[in-house]
Amino acid sequence: MASPGSYIRSAARATSSAYRRLPIRWRLAGGSAVLTLVILMGFAAVVGVATTRRIRADFNSQVRSAADDLAGRVVVRTGRNPQCVGPNLDVYGGAENAKIRVVTLSGDTICETRGAPDLGFPRPNTGGVDANGYRVEAHPIVIPLFGQAILQFARPLSDVDRTIDKVRLFLIFGVLAGIALF
């Protein structure tokens, strides 16, 4: 009578012998394909992470420099109701789909682009923050005879997210094409 352990050994032998039945060329090709896939995926992951970081850093830098530039150009007319007289904020932010607000230190709006969302309480000199789907830079501006106000310059994060998605898709297709050509 056979012991119960003998069935396990024969099952293990049958499983390992299926791989051994393949010709050596097929086994080498399969191992090489798996190794190539691992190498391509590792390379794509490293390139994807580095590229994503660089794209986000460039986007944040563009938002910061545009806010710096606009902070030096904004002219606010003082009086009973302060208002912006230059440059036209809708035109300035239009090409980048930017939303711009000039607000008092208490948070009251002096002027803004059409459709500008609430960008949060103005906190100048804290670096960029993400608020309501936008990357927001806040810079103080001096208004003669009025005091100080805050310029909030924001660009939608969806712009940079679309670019990152395109890079990821390109890397995935690159890995698949590399495997297909192998």
Secondary-structure blueprint:
Elements: H1 4-21, H2 24-73, E1 75-77, E2 83-86, H3 89-94, E3 99-104, E4 109-112, E5 129-131, E6 134-143, E7 147-156, H4 157-181
Antiparallel strand pairs: 1-2, 3-4, 3-7, 5-6, 6-7
Helix pairs in contact: 2-4
What do you see in this structure?
- This protein is an alpha+beta fold.
- The protein has a domain of 83 residues.
- Helix content is 54%, strand content 22%.
- The chain has four helices and seven strands, in the order H-H-E-E-H-E-E-E-E-E-H.
- A five-stranded antiparallel sheet has the order 4-3-7-6-5.
- Strand 1 and strand 2 form a beta hairpin.
- The mean pLDDT is 86.
Question: What is the structure about, briefly put?
Answer:
This protein is an alpha+beta fold and 182 residues long.
Q: Order of strands in the sheet with the most strands?
A: 4-3-7-6-5
Give the ordered list of helices and strands. Answer: HHEEHEEEEEH
The number of strands is: 7
Structural class: alpha+beta
Please report which band the strand proportion falls in: under 5%, 5-15%, 15-25%, 25-35%, 35-45% or over 45%.
15-25%
User: Main β-sheet: number of strands, strand sense, barrel status?
Assistant: 5 strands, antiparallel
What does the average pLDDT come to? 86
Q: How far is the first residue's CA from the last residue's CA?
A: 51 Å
Using only C-alpha atoms, the radius of gyration works out to: 30 Å
What's the shape? rod-shaped
Q: Spans of 5+ residues with little confidence (pLDDT < 50)?
A: none
State the helix count: 4
Share of helix, binned: 40-55%
